Amino acid sequence: MTHPRILVVIGHPLPDSLNHALAHRYAESAREAGATVDIIDLATDPIPAHPTQFHELAMPSGESAPPLSPEVEDYIGRVRAADHVVFLFPQWWGTYPAALKAWLDRVIISGFAFNYRNKGKGWHKRLKGRTGRIVMTMDSTLSWNRMAYGDAAIKTLKTATMWFVGIKTVGVTRVPAVRTSTPGKIEAALERAAKQGRADSRLTPVAREERVPA
Fold first, then answer.
1. What is the pLDDT of residues 123-145, one digit of tens each?
2. How many domains does the chain have?
3. CA 20 to 30 Å from 82, out of 10, 16, 71, 147?
4. CATH code, 87
5. Whole domain around residue 136: which residue ranges?
């Protein structure tokens, strides 16, 4: 059996968070099941600076085009190599932290993750064939997240980003009421992450012909 290459993106800018514990439990389980796992940790890895020029929103085109920054080039290469992408983040102010938004703004760019067709009619999903998973922790309850926030963080990441570029979401996990949680509930969340790692290790890798060319 061929196992997938999994990219885990930890979108929490502070180290030693519950997101980190969930990510490492997931990764350990997936590796034990045979998958290759790469981890981008935005608490320790570089957070790309927000774009200030239009060229930073697209892959360089032409010899005179300014190159992307080295960290963005590295992140693009790691997404390109992945079959399955897992995003973990806390819900802050109804959505995800600025660290993850900055990463998305600079890495999921035109010419790499998508590009528009001629005359602006539709677009090509250049990460098609890949799968994804979302794990969100939050202090609010599930009902409050749904009624007050409209589940905005999940909707924007799943639809406006992942679906837009062709990544099929195979699972969404919300870990609610973390601030008032109990050790038993935290351990249950960690065990669920481990089960997800084992399950995702059985996903089908991206076919060679579907891979984004270098």
1. 999 999 999 999 999 999 999 99
2. 1
3. 16
4. 3.40.50.360
5. 5-49+66-116+123-201
